[in-house]
Amino acid sequence: MNTSDISKLVKNQPGGHSLGQAFYKDPDIYQREIERIFMKSWLYAGHTSQVPNVGDYFLYELDNESVIVIRETVDSIKGLLNVCRHRGSRVCLSASGNANLLVCPYHGWTYEKNGQLRGASHTYPGFKKSKYPLTPVNLKVFHGMIFINFDKDPISFDPVEKDMDECLQPYRLDKAKVAHTESYQIKANWKLAVENYCECYHCVPSHPEYAEAHGRSFPRRDMEEALQEVFQKGELVGLPEHNINYDWLDSGGVGIDRSFDRYPLLKGFVTGSRDGKAVAPLLGEIKGYDGGATDMHIGPLTFYLAYCDHVVVYHFKPVTIDSAECEITWLVNETAVEGKDYKPDDLIWLWDITTIADKRIIEDNQKGVNSRYYEPGPFTEMEVFEQGFIDWYLSSMK
Ligand code: FES
Ligand SMILES: [Fe+2]
């Protein structure tokens, strides 16, 4: 499909409806998404607790790209493209590890942790090592969360820092640690996975475990009274009222979505857990349970569900045109001791069971979308946030 065909398709997409089939199947559209969305956005790569010591690194991989996220010094984390400046081999092959120097396995070019080329044998006289550092990638650490951006001239991250700093403060995510990470491989186009995350219309039929605990499963107007109670209690436990909604087209650009939106948990639940009881010690500066939870969104592909005792981070990315990955990270207070203060099985129970159910419904969705009889269908009042995603997506693809 050529450029003007894609633009025509975007223009003809009916408003208020799910996307036409080509958006889930056409390789040229997929390529345009990679360039216009994934290569431009601020993407959650991980948490600082994953690289506690100098030389610790992990890889962030997307499409053909691989980034080495490495702690260069006690105070500095760097993002380096995992592409050797000699003839292009991958330099780091392990998904994570610790390295004093980064040594390319092909011909042994050796790089410092800041990417500078330190050694290359048998080069010609006049060879300047300073000309061949590993290419840096834009990287920001914000409240312990590491974001990267592949763009050479990325959209400013400042709006995220400015708008989200205060509301994140009580959680002290810079003083959190990764308790567990799980990667869910979904046989569907990445947009179906994100769309599914963006609506809770399916929560009552598909997620009984979630629906009995979270007010998000019901229309907002039915939850207003309970939300006011959360705000009152929140004030007392150190979670003052904030409501930030710069998502999708309201974000002011591709890649800097930021929102913070509170909602009530249902009776008997202080967190997202099997029995409604806490599953970890309180986070950061939070002094008690206010009966609420917070949905957050930073960058277009990362969503957070913040409870008072843990935060669940969802990062979506495409693997191929018809497969996607949802990586979930569970963050707890850094002082919490596994086995004593939290049990991983209890901590991850709700979102593991929920994401396994999501994987199934997303894959069934893809099967139906693949049908020659599929047609875009109308959104409901429970799919307003998903509609925002679709409108933003179409605008990015014009
Ligand atoms: S490609 Fe890395 S040293 Fe040759
Ligand atoms: Fe779901």
What key phrases describe this protein's structure?
single chain, 398 residues, alpha+beta, Rieske Iron-sulfur Protein, Naphthalene 1,2-dioxygenase Alpha Subunit, Chain A, domain 1, 7-stranded antiparallel β-sheet, 26% strand, binds fe (ii) ion
Question: Brief description of this entry?
Answer:
By secondary structure, the chain is an alpha+beta fold.
Secondary-structure-derived class: alpha+beta
- Work out the helix count: 10
Tally of separate domains = 2
Give Rg in angstroms. Answer: 22 Å
N→C terminal distance: 14 Å
Which regions are unreliable across 5 or more consecutive residues at pLDDT < 50?
none
Provide an overview of this structure.
By secondary structure, the chain is of the alpha+beta class. It folds into two domains: 43-142, Rieske [2Fe-2S] iron-sulphur domain (Rieske Iron-sulfur Protein, 3-layer Sandwich), CATH 2.102.10.10; 166-397, Naphthalene 1,2-dioxygenase Alpha Subunit, Chain A, domain 1, CATH 3.90.380. The chain is 27% helix and 26% strand. It is built from ten helices and 17 strands. It has helices spanning 3-12, 22-25, 27-38, 158-168, 190-197, 203-206, 208-211, 224-237, 344-369, 384-397; strands at 43-47, 56-62, 65-73, 76-81, 96-98, 102-103, 110-111, 117-119, 136-142, 145-149, 176-186, 244-246, 258-264, 292-298, 302-306, 311-320, 323-333. Strands 1-10-9-4-3-2-5 form a seven-stranded antiparallel sheet, with no helix packed on it. A hairpin with a 2-residue loop joins strand 2 (56-62) and strand 3 (65-73). The two termini are 14 Å apart. The mean pLDDT is 96. Bound molecules: FE2/S2 (inorganic) cluster and fe (ii) ion (FE2). FE2/S2 (inorganic) cluster binds at residues 84, 86-89, 104, 106-109.
